[in-house]
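Sample pair:
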Amino acid sequence: MNIADVLLGRAKLKGIQWVLLSTTARKALADQLRALLPQGALVGPRHLREVRFKPGRRLTAYYDALVYIEGSEAYRVRPIAVTWGSNTDADRHQETGDLAKVQAEAVRHGVAAPFLQLMADCPEWSMRVRVSPLDARFIQLARLSDPQHVRAMLAEAHASGNAGSDRGRVSDYTVTAIIYRPGKRHVLRYDPVDPAKGGTVFAKLYIGGEEARVYRREDGARAFRVAREVADWLAERGQGVNCLRPLAYVAEDAVVLYPRVGGVPLSDYARRPNRVVARWLQQAGAALCTLHHLPVELAGRPEPHDFAAEIRDSAKKSDHIPVLLPQVGPAIEALFDRARELHERLPQEPPTFTHGDLKSEHIWVAAGGLTVMDFDCSRLADPALDVGQFLADWQFWQSAYDQASDDTYKSFLAGYAAAAPKERLIRARLYEAVELVKYAGRRLHPFEHDWASRTGRLVDRAWAVMNELQRTLSLPARPLSAQRSGNTFQNSPRAQAREGDR
């Protein structure tokens, strides 16, 4: 199979799965990794965690690779990022120079081993391999992966009082990469060697220093400020809901440090809906209602985020679906068109503080109540955005567990709707339909054997929400479809997409 045809989308879903899963492609990747290791090292299985496909540009896959070094007791896990796609010669030259500097930094901190090199290029496959902690945009990742630097950084944070402890409690730490996404985001976990001397700390990195002038996408100082101010406000008025309070912001490393939170994410309850789950959902709804009463000046991004921007974002994150599943693409396009049309008819209200990324993984359940986290996307927006995001997220998890849509999420609305205008809840259903398509594009991955049918199922659900909303507004509903013929729709996305799984 031709790699160019795969990247252009001509080979459809089979082409993507060939690059990711075929014996030939997997051997090519293993050979590239083996060439980066010392003689005698073994490359074990590679667990594929996430895939991003930008038709006509690149395919990126993120793995946890197992590496065995002769004389060691066990395999070691190392995150890697593999990109198929072509750079211009100028871009490749610039990237190679920058990465060489970062690699030297990783060697200096002792975090490159057992790898002799952290990058490889394979022109015949248009493939580039990058090994953690290599990242030219997050130049601090190498030192933040160094246990000695971590110990000194946390000791200083504790000594200054920012982390609420003292220097004597600081332990040596082991470092684990939780998220390795070169150029995008990184999360590290620091576990104390001696648990009696400290707790687990999570480090969320932001682009900082000189690189921020060109590549700045998120501001660590802003994220720290928002989370602290929200935590303070909820501590006084939250009534059963808490915000995960960051421990410290280390400006030199452009990193926000967070403590480990107790409990489990609310998403864990989606597989077994019952009265207990309904009660937690109702509390989650009430918690969101509280968040929407936060002062607007606490929002991390003061510029309002409107419905048109959310449509654009959803379209961008799902733009590979029509390429890989041409029979489903028209249903997505039609849904976005209908969503814009309906939104123009609905009454609006002034923007409020919104979480901006309200998924059930960001709400943790413990005996003491609920804790909401990850306010990086907080902004001024229609509060219906948060409601719609949560409803779509809950349906996503039900779909993942192959459950029929049930009424448990109505408990969430019961907890939220006590003081919410009816028009807001109507707009929330519109956001819900749009978010279901976004989640199909962002949270399902084409290496999964049932990706096509699950994608079709979510698009079906999006149209079901849209049609229910149209009935509420006394407008004629449109049948579920993946294919347009004039103004007529035929066949459901799920039925059409099922062919892609074969």
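The chain has three domains: 3-131, 141-259, 264-501.
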